[in-house]
Every structure is written in C-alpha cells, then in structure tokens.
C-alpha cells in the first residue's frame, strides 16, 4: 500500500517577539477517516498554508493558521487512493473547539457517519467551534451528528448561505468546492486581496469566479477598509501621523473608525500605531549604533525622553537596557 507522510498545513514560522502580541493564531481542524478524499481535504489545508505564506511576508501578520489533520485514533489514515496521511487523535484537548472544523468527503463518509466515536466527538466540539463545514460527502457525517449547515451560514451571512445552496445543487469538482469555504475564512481574517491571491495561485483558471462568489463587488467592505488603514499605519508609523489621518485613509468618520478598528483588530488605532513604532524602535536598538534620541525621531516616537517613558511603561526596562539584553541574546 502506498505511503506518503503528508503533513498538515501549519507553517514553521514563528513571529518575532515584537510581533507576537499582535498575531492571532487561528486553529483549523480537518477531520479525516479511512477512505476520505485527499483532493478535497488537501486543497483546504493548502488554502490556509498559502494564506500563511502571503501573510507572513507582510511587515505584520494579522493572524496565522495552525492546521491539523485529525482522526478517531490518530496515526496514519488511508485516503480513497490508499495514500496514508498522519493525523492527531480525537481527545479532550479539542473540547475547547476550533476557529474552523472541516469534515472530509470521500467514499468513506458513509462508514464514518456510523462511527459513534466520530458522531459524539462532533456533537461535543461543535458548540464551541466558530465554523463547522463539510467537504462534499462529509455532510453525511455532519447529518449523522445532527449538525446542519446553518452554523456557518448564521456566522458568515449571505455569502456563506449562497455557498451552501450552491454545494447542495451539485457543484462540479471537489477541488473547486472545497476551496470556497476556506477562502471565505481567509477573506474574513486577511481581506479580499489575500483571498484573491490565494485563489489565483492555487487555481488560476477559476480565481475570478471564486472571488466573485466570495462577495467582492468591487467596493471594499468596512473590514477591508480597516485592514487597509492598519497597513497604512504600519507602513507610515515612522512619520508624524495620527489616528485622524488613518480615519481619512479608511474614508470613515473618526468616531466610526475608532469603533470599527477595535472590532476588527482587537486594539485601538493608537495602540496599534504605538506597537508598530515600538517594533521599529526595537529593531533599530538591536541592529544599529544610533543614539536613543535619534532612534526616537526615526521611529516616530518624538524624542528620547518620551521613548524612555514608553519603554519603562510597556517593557519595564530602559531603551539602553533593551539594547544590551537583545544583543546578548542574539550572541547566545
């Protein structure tokens, strides 16, 4: 029987210490069983893997996807073409749920739907999982667990409802069908630009159709505007900019911008800007011989006194102490 050590799509990339507090980890699970379709499950994993690559190339990754293959007992699971994939077992670690859970399709779905261990586990984790989604025949497994498709429709609105209806009408091709739900999550987290890039790389001939299904009408959503403003803050943090400037970039009133930014990014615009400036400052302290006052001016912090106050408040050490410690750690 053929064997392949197929790894999940988690990226071996660790955010720098200056970025760690800003990067959220999204836990994605793909439930497999004997006789699953490798094509459908594999493309879902690849969507998140590609999104990680594109996101990590930015100055600040907004989130990173940790993708895991799961099965009842863990270990190697054979797909419908007899290729074996390594999986983690179903256990109490997962009772806290996931950001998204995909159930694989394939000819083994009928047997999986009769497996009480799978059914009970799904019932237990679904209430704490943001999105539960079937890949093709995987809907039989969800039906056996009494889990409908409304869970993701309710959370994602009309775009997801459209996708569910389309799949139920018999969408052509596991690969195309499987990409849609994963791309919708990427669009929510990272914006339409990243989801479009992922689609273009993985399925060039169908990228335009996929993006149109994801609800991009050519006008940026409020979330896309906020993320664009966040990127602008990141790219211009060394200049004497303000939150008012960022609100203008997003084409929003200052009040609405402050509210929407906190919802989308999890922190206020001023804190986001400060974190971006701190990241620049820390890099300059570690990699250059510039005096603290000049670094403060170059990083948008104003002057050395203000920088020192911020460092003591945020990092509990002075800029000079940070420089010494970071270089000591770099030299081992």
What is the fold named in CATH at topology level of the largest domain? Rossmann fold
Radius of gyration over all CA atoms, rounded? 23 Å
What would the principal axes of the Cα set say about the shape? elongated
Low-confidence stretches: 1-21, 150-172
The biggest sheet, with number of strands, parallel, antiparallel or mixed sense and barrel status, is: 6 strands, mixed
- Percent of residues in helices comes to 40-55%
Q: Please report the distance between the alpha carbons of the first and last residues.
A: 47 Å
**Secondary-structure content class:** alpha/beta
Fourth-level CATH superfamily of the largest domain: Class I glutamine amidotransferase (GATase) domain
- By DSSP, the count of extended strands is 6
Average of pLDDT:
80
Proportion in β-strands = 5-15%
Going across the biggest sheet, name each strand in turn: 3-4-2-1-5-6
What is the CATH class of the largest domain? Alpha Beta
Order of helices and strands: HEHEEEEHHEHHHHHHHHHHHHH
Second CATH tier, the architecture of the largest domain: 3-Layer(aba) Sandwich
How many discrete structural domains?
A: 2
Task: Write up what this structure looks like.
This is AraC family transcriptional regulator. This protein has 332 residues and is α/β, with parallel strands linked by helices. The chain has 2 domains: 17-213, Rossmann fold; 222-330, Orthogonal Bundle (Arc Repressor Mutant, subunit A), CATH 1.10.10.60. It is built from 17 helices and 6 strands. It has helices at 17-20, 38-56, 109-113, 116-126, 139-144, 150-156, 158-168, 174-190, 192-202, 207-213, 222-235, 243-249, 254-265, 269-287, 292-298, 304-314, 319-330, and strands at residues 24-31, 63-71, 75-78, 84-89, 100-103, 131-134. Helix 2 (38-56) links the parallel strand 1 and strand 2. The longest helix is centred in the first third of the chain and has 19 residues, at 38-56. The termini are far apart.
């Amino acid at each position: 029987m053929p064997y392949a050590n197929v790894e999940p799509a988690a990226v071996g990339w660790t955010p720098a210490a200056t970025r760690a507090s800003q990067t959220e980890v999204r836990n994605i699970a793909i439930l497999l069983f004997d006789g699953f379709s490798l094509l459908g499950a594999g493309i879902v994993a690849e969507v998140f893997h590609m999104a990680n690559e594109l996101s990590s190339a930015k100055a600040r990754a907004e989130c990173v996807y940790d993708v895991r293959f799961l099965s009842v007992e863990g270990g190697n699971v054979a797909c419908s073409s007899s290729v074996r994939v390594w999986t983690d077992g179903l256990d109490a670690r997962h009772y806290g749920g996931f950001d998204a859970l995909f159930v694989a399709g394939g000819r083994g779905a009928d047997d999986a739907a009769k497996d009480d261990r799978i059914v009970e586990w799904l019932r237990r984790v679904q209430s704490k999982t943001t999105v539960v989604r079937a890949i093709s025949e995987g809907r039989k497994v969800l039906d056996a667990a009494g889990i409908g498709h409304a869970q993701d429709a309710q959370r994602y609105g009309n775009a997801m409802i459209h996708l569910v209806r389309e799949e139920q009408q018999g969408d052509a091709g596991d690969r195309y069908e499987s990409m849609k739900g994963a791309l919708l999550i990427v669009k929510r987290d990272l914006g339409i630009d990243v989801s479009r890039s992922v689609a273009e790389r993985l399925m060039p001939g169908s990228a335009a159709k996929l993006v149109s299904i994801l609800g991009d009408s050519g006008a940026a959503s409020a979330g896309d505007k906020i993320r664009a403003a966040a990127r602008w803050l990141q790219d211009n943090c060394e200049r004497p900019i303000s939150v008012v400037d960022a609100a203008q970039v997003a084409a929003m009133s200052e009040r609405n911008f402050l509210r929407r930014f906190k919802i989308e990014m999890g922190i206020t615009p001023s804190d986001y800007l400060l974190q971006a400036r701190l990241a620049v400052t820390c890099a300059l302290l570690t990699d250059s011989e510039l005096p603290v006052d000049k670094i403060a001016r170059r990083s948008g912090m104003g002057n050395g006194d203000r920088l020192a106050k911020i460092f003591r408040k945020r990092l509990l050490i002075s800029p000079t102490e940070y420089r010494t410690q970071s270089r000591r750690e770099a030299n081992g």
